[in-house]
Amino acid sequence: MTIRHVVTWKLKSEDAAERGAQAAEVARRLNALAGVVPQLLSISAGANSVYPEANWDVTLVADFDSVEALEQYAVHPAHEEAAVYIKSVVASRVAVDFEV
Predict the structure, then answer these.
(1) What pTM, to 2 d.p., does this model score?
(2) How many degrees, rounded to 5, is the angle at CA 50 between CA 91 and CA 98?
């Protein structure tokens, strides 16, 4: 069983240029976890590039071997470091974890 972890964030900045730069930085920090966090089977994060007035700002899709691996990822120091920045710029977060 593989667990797919999908997270989408809405950033709090009112300024579109600032929000775009922050979304790119969130994606960069998350993608940098590839090869660093051993529990990650795959990771892809990206800033929204279409319909900014309707869409959320940045999304993460990551795959894990198990729920336990997802939980280990969540507390990995490199993930926790990225999360500090993400939490500083985020207004809202939604997530779904499902079997693939």
Answers:
(1) 0.95
(2) 60
Summarize pLDDT for 6-64 with one digit per residue, the tens: 999 999 999 999 999 999 999 999 999 999 999 999 999 999 999 988 999 999 999 99
From edge to edge, which strands make up the β-sheet containing 42-47? 42-47, 58-64, 3-11, 90-99
CA atoms of 61 and 8, how far apart (whole Å): 9
d(CA 30, CA 79): 8
d(CA 48, CA 24): 9
> What DSSP element (H or E) covers 46?
strand 42-47
Q: How many CB atoms lie within 10 A of CB 89?
A: 19
Secondary structure letter of residue 48 according to DSSP: -
Tokens of 91: 């207004």
Structure tokens at 86: 């993400």
